Amino acid sequence: MASESTEISDQLTNLAVPLSAATITVRVIKSFEYRTEKSLVLRALDLEHMTVGELKARVLQAGEGLFCSCTIAIKTEPGWKAYRTVELDTLKLYTKAHGAKTTNLIINLDHDDWILNDDDAVLASLGFGT
User: Fold this and answer.
1) For the whole model, what pTM was predicted?
2) Domain range holding 50?
């Protein structure tokens, strides 16, 4: 019987998977006042080549479901019906891996420079995956 290693790896979890196969969670916010949001998990993203504009399109068109591997679309699926009338136009990085998290439950009010307003910028160059 092979011996099992009981050592804990020193490798950070955000570095365990290559940037070409990353998983990110997008928090789609409907209302700041009522703290209405829904999370969308996107898997197998290539952060080295995907731009902010492509990420916005992927969020609006389709992505991987939160707890299933089925394809969902904000504009067509019943679970996203409440979000169809909301104009989703801005992305902001909420937190970075192994960094301090904000106490605000809906959005990070710090770091205005984390707003993703350049649709041509590559995600890896903006700090995704680091």
Assistant:
1) 0.67
2) 19-125
